Amino acid sequence: MTSKRFGFTLIEILIAMSILGIMAALITGNYLITQKRARDARRKSDLHNIQNGLEQYYANCNFAYPTPLANNTFSSLTCLSPSLALMPTVPVDPLTISPYPCTSCSDSQYQLCSTLEVETPQTYCLTNAQ
User: Fold this and answer.
1) Quick one: what percent of the chain has pLDDT higher than 70?
2) Which of 54, 58, 115, 118 is 20–30 Å from 85 (CA)?
3) pLDDT at residue 75 is higher than 80
4) pLDDT at residue 1 in the model
5) Are 74 and 66 in contact (CB under 8 A)?
6) Over the Cα atoms of the chain, what is R_g?
7) What is the C-alpha separation between 54 and 58, in angstroms, rounded?
8) Which DSSP helix (H) or strand (E) runs through 17?
9) What share of the chain is helix, strand, coil (3-state, %, to 5)?
10) Average model confidence (pLDDT) for the chain?
11) Residues 107, 82: Cα–Cα separation, whole Å
12) What is the spatial distance between Cα 2 and Cα 4, in angstroms, rounded to a whole number?
């Protein structure tokens, strides 16, 4: 007499669950690294955008770079003479939501830096083009 088998055995269920668990662990690990790389790319793009805004400020506003705020950051890039809003809001770091610091800033030079999460070297800096 043949018996019909309905369902799965405990071993089959455990093997399927372990395979799914391994796949989930691999996908989660890759997803986190991908997020970090995306934030690094965003930081580089932000610094290039700020650099472009600073160079436009320099060219349009009496050949001098803007003075940063007391904490060595920029909240906006606005020229008073002539009246131009070159960058009404300056981008911020995507993880910490804090402004990018400007080191060695004066009316003739600047250096913008950010710390990267995945890439090496970990510090990415841009300086003035003039």
Assistant:
1) 98
2) 115
3) yes
4) 56
5) yes
6) 26
7) 6
8) helix 10-60
9) 40, 15, 45
10) 91
11) 17
12) 7
